[in-house]
Amino acid sequence: MERQLEFQVSVPSTERLDRFLADQLSLSRTQAARLVASGAVRVNAEPVRASRSLAQGDFVSVLLSPEAAGGPRELKPFSASLNVVHEDESLMVLDKPAGLVVHPAPGHWEDTLLNALVARGTSLAAGAVGRPGLVHRLDKDTSGLMVLAKTDTAHRRLARAMAQRRVKRVYAALAWGHLGDTTEIDAPVARHPRDRKRMTVLATGRPARTLVEPVARFDVCDLVRVRLATGRTHQIRVHLNYVGHPVVGDPAYGGGGPRRVTGSQRVRANLLDRTTPRQALHAALLGLLHPDTGEPCEFRSEWPVDLRAALHVANADSDQLARDNWLEYLGFFK
Questions:
Q1: pTM of the complete model beyond 0.85
Q2: Which candidate in 95, 139, 141, 273 is catalytic?
Q3: Nearest-10 Cα torsion for 219, 221, 225, 231
């Protein structure tokens, strides 16, 4: 049977249509391009080319048939431990562990956060095709707070609040070197022209703005408070690397990490690099207005257990090994 899928673009702009559809429908790019070429995709009721870029408000319709791309995959249950910080009839806030992919994609079709929510029996808003309930995402190896919508009304209101920058998202990160008091990074982000798995700063990219403020200064790195003014893919990691202070432990944008440190501190830098199991980036604070009541909600998540050893090496404070409230102790939430 044929299925008609319809959705509207909520972000200011997108990549070319075939890449956008592959991302939204959990298809390969070849499948997405085949859909466009067959005439099964229309934008604002008009036939389009695969190279077409979309803008906010564009209305996209896709006619899926067994002969076309096969449609989005069914979400299968996957058993995983989830830390639910808050849940009510309209929304759910999770503290996502590092290593868990948020939604199905090539290489991770059945072992994602959304698959785990299916196994849990959680009912989510329809949302984008193949991505029920999602209003934002975290990278696989970034831990921390995420909000998901459980009703269509909550999804619509939360997505609008996200687009209008009314959702506060604050991250804790270890960044190589030392930043000034407050750094505002305003640099457009785009897909890397030669490596499609990475992002980079390009004049032709989408506007992106990040605010970075040091919380604690250690010998070879800073613990920083990072606030997103926009929400581009890999934005924090790309922006910190762009200004010469990449996230400690970042395999894609680390920029040589410890090699940036010279002199007597190189030994500590190398030890920190070996001790950090992943990018030292954690979504520590999430603030929003409840989509039903309008009441302000704020959620906090402490520095994750798997990165405690890295912070201990960076800080050289043996007393902190026993702490479970490192961010509170260092004044991150003030």
A1: no
A2: 139
A3: 180
